[in-house]
Design brief:
Monomer. This is Shikimate kinase. It is built from nine helices and five strands, in the order βαβαααβαβαααβα. By secondary structure, it is of the alpha/beta class. The longest helix is centred in the last third of the chain and has 19 residues, at 163-181. The relative contact order is 0.20.
């Protein structure tokens, strides 16, 4: 039987809508906690040797979600001491959500719709889920995903906070959790 990692060894998984800063926060948090950082979307791009948008276009969303699910579950169940950034839609998959909750510490980076919308111009080209969508449709997707992100995760409001501030806060909270809940 496989040993369940201690609270200190568990991977830390960052979830939230696309473009909220999971990769930026994750990279810095991993450095602060002396862990490896994994961006699942980047790992998928390396594996398939193409951009996510090209995978969606050439292989379809279903093929993308399948490899996303396989990789994420593998990272969650077979590794430890990592900070893992999930793509915005990954946590919507039941199998991924279960693996994250069973084996990792899940942190939801929350950004308000109004501030997210301000980032739209820099996001739209690299986010296939947003292609050909009206702003109203994007808002519906944003709103639809919120309850799933919020359920069973530690929520961090990111509005008006710089990455360094978010990382410092998370480092403090995580280390406090380690102290309270033991090794």
């Amino acid at each position: 039987m496989k040993r369940i990692p201690s609270i200190r060894e568990r991977n830390i998984v960052l979830i939230g809508f696309m473009g909220v800063g999971k990769t930026s926060v994750g990279e810095q948090l991993a450095k602060r906690l002396f862990r490896d950082f994994i961006d699942v979307d980047q790992e998928i791009e390396k594996t398939w040797k193409m951009k996510i948008s090209d995978i969606f276009r050439l292989k379809g969303e279903e093929a993308f979600r399948k490899i996303e699910r396989e990789m994420t579950i593998d990272y969650c169940t077979n590794t430890s001491l990592k900070v893992i950034s999930l793509g915005g839609g990954a946590y919507m998959q039941d199998a991924i959500r279960t693996a994250c909750l069973d084996h990792c510490i899940v942190i939801y980076l929350d950004l308000s719709w109004s501030l997210w919308k301000e980032r739209l111009n820099v996001l739209i080209d690299n986010r296939p889920v947003l292609q050909d969508k009206k702003v109203e449709e994007m808002e519906q997707l944003f709103t639809k995903r919120q309850p799933t992100y919020q359920k069973n995760s530690f929520q961090v409001e990111t509005d008006g906070r710089e990455v360094a501030e978010i990382v410092s806060y998370l480092e403090e909270v995580i280390k406090l959790g380690w102290e309270i809940y033991g090794s």
